[in-house]
Amino acid sequence: MKDIYSIIKRPLVTEKSTGLIATDNKVTFKVAINANKDEVKKAVEMIFNVTVLRVNTLRMKGKEKRLGRNIGRRPDWKKAMVTLKEGDRIEIFEGV
């Protein structure tokens, strides 16, 4: 198993993810691109001491960006939407 702190990169705080926290008790993270659902589940449970019911992952394509006439591309990344047990909360998402 990989280091749990290299699997979870950072929390994603957007309008949609904030709404999912309030309605469905789902939190969203940016994760390592080669991490699978089992690794994400174990990492979230160990780091935040919560019970994870389900993990959904999405591969996000990097956007094309221009600087003058040069065209570049941002790297692809992976997003994980984690459903927590009813009553469990993660403090970093509180009050957002």
Q: Key terms for this structure?
A:
alpha+beta, single chain, two-stranded antiparallel ribbon, 96 residues, globular, 27% helix, Alpha-Beta Plaits
Gist?
The chain is 27% helix and 36% strand. By secondary structure, the chain is α+β, with helices and mostly antiparallel strands. It starts with a helix and ends in a 12-residue tail after the last strand.
CATH topology: Alpha-Beta Plaits
Proportion of helical residues: 25-40%
Strand content: 35-45%
Instruction: Return Rg in Å.
Output: 15 Å
Q: If helices are DSSP runs of H or I spanning 4 or more residues, what is the number of helices? A: 3
- Please summarize the sheet with the most strands: 4 strands, antiparallel
